[in-house]
Amino acid sequence: MTAAKPTPPGYTLRQMVAYMLRLGSLGFGGPVALAGYMHRDLVEARGWITEDDYREGLALAQLAPGPLAAQLAIYLGYVHYRLLGATLVGLAFVIPSFLMVVALGWAYVGYGGLAWMQSVFYGVGAAVIGIIAMSAHKLASKSVGKDRLLWAVFLLLAVVTVLTESEIAWLFIAAGVAVMAVRAPPKWMRRGSVGALALPLLAAPAGAPGWSLLTQIGAFFAKAGAFVFGSGLAIVPFLYGGVVTEHHWLNDKQFVDAVAVAMITPGPVVITVGFIGYLIAGFWGACVAALGTFLPCYLFTVIPAPYFKKYGRLPAVKAFVDGITAAAIGAIAGSVVVIARRSIVDLPTAAVALVTLAVLWRFRKLQEPYVILAAAAFGLAAHPLMQR
């Protein structure tokens, strides 16, 4: 089926690619913050993307497996420029941070570790909590509003995320179905069939012992990209189980350093796979790990995208998307607590998180990279003192 002809865009593909290059180069704060930046810049400030298109992209990014921010960027590129837009925008969003983590991987291997990074992460990790909390607030106020049913979904997913420290995929689908059942139940629901909502899953086999190392890396990271839902942060425990416990490619300290690299570099948090791939097998290991992780999320975005555009205005589909969106934002809000448990380790880091939130609340137009730089400087100064 051919999707309906879109409204002529008020921007060029080159402008969108340039924006995503900039966001990939300067966007700090993880998936929630990046999604918030896209809403602020592309929906509110520039009007390139409509509120409905943004919400559809956010819902699809949460419904399908893979990193949320990258999938949202790919979908926004698809809105007016289809496959070419999705492909170029996805590459523009990922490549800057990929090059940064490869450079850091080279320095890490060449100079025997990055001890200073732990000091930077001490401040940045705490500041990121404030950035994510502010972004979650903005998303909730825009997408949930004063709707009691959506707030119930939001709170349920927030609590579940806090308690389980994970994102349970079927709950997002259940939330969409529940809201649809209340507001606009379609005929098929009376027959008890939910098959039309299912998204195909691409199973990636585990690396067999006889395979080459690059093949094992590609298979493992493709599985990670295909079966981890929600934010890029959700991939961290999955990676730990495979990279450290199962394959023994890295030790605990190297893995923690890899997560620190992802948090102190801009762009999608899931780009930590590039750093991990570099430590395992050099430059080509980084390339294979990144490709394996991002290819599934690209396919899971562009394949269902035409159907979101064609059927997204139907009452049943709109209710389903509203439920998925509320669930997604609830899980994101819950992840603030989960991440805070790991990043806020003492009174100074708690103060950094609170000050960051207060500053962003007071100065709504303040660019987050300035906050990150200040937090990094604080970490470099304070962490060595706290270790004494």
Shape: globular
Number of strands: 0
Helix content: over 70%
How many structural units, i.e. domains? 1
Instruction: List unreliable stretches of 5+ residues.
Output: 193-210
Helix tally equals: 16
- Largest sheet entry: none
H/E series, N to C?
HHHHHHHHHHHHHHHH
Q: How would you classify the helix and strand content by structural class?
A: mainly alpha
N-C termini distance: 66 Å
Average pLDDT confidence is 80
Proportion of strand residues: under 5%
The value of Rg in angstroms is 20 Å
Give an overview of the whole structure:
The protein has 388 residues and is an all-alpha fold. The chain has one domain. Helix content is 76%, strand content 0%. It has 16 helices and no strands. The N and C termini lie far apart (66 Å).
What's this entry about, in short?
With 388 residues, the protein is mainly alpha-helical. The chain contains 16 helices and no strands.
